[in-house]
Amino acid sequence: MGSGWSEEKFADYKLKLKTNNNCLTAWEFIELVGTRYFSKGMNQQTLSMGITEVFQELILDVLKQGYLMKKGHKRKNWTERWFVLRPDALSYYACEDLVEKKGNIIVDRTCCVEVCC
Fold first, then answer.
1. Is residue 112 a part of any domain in this protein?
2. Neighbouring residues of 84: CB distance < 8 A, sequence distance ≥ 6
């Protein structure tokens, strides 16, 4: 699918950085990927998904996201919802486009989880 990791290329890239530390900021990483210096031969869709995940984790503080089944409060039927977990809340939406927010569960020290069989 793509080319292998080249430690020499990365060492060369780090020398060109303006900072002296051994890490990249999120913006430096995105710029690095955008230069295609390391991504030649990689599938563009795979790269896009990777950048999106890094952005969501580092910038939007998303810990985990995906579809789950949720039991309704009034009608008690099960509906598939798109859930997004952040350090302080679990939000759920009609689908993964995040347009129609259905609810928000605050996650704090008083929150408890009930597991059903």
1. no
2. 62, 64, 65, 90, 91, 92, 93, 98
Determine the Cα–Cα distance for residues 105 and 88; give it in Å rounded to an integer.
9
Q: Which residue has the tokens 């599938």?
A: 43
> Into how many domains does the chain fold?
2
Q: Say if residue 12 is in the same domain as residue 53.
A: yes
| CATH number of residue 85's parent domain | 2.30.29.30
Only one residue has tokens 């949720």, namely: 70
Question: Global pTM?
Answer: 0.61
Structure tokens at 41: 């031969």
Which residues are within 8 A (CB) of 42 and not within 5 positions of it... i.e. 6 or more apart? 1, 2, 3
| 50: containing domain | 7-58
Give 61-86 pLDDT, tens digit per residue.
999 999 999 988 888 899 999 999 99
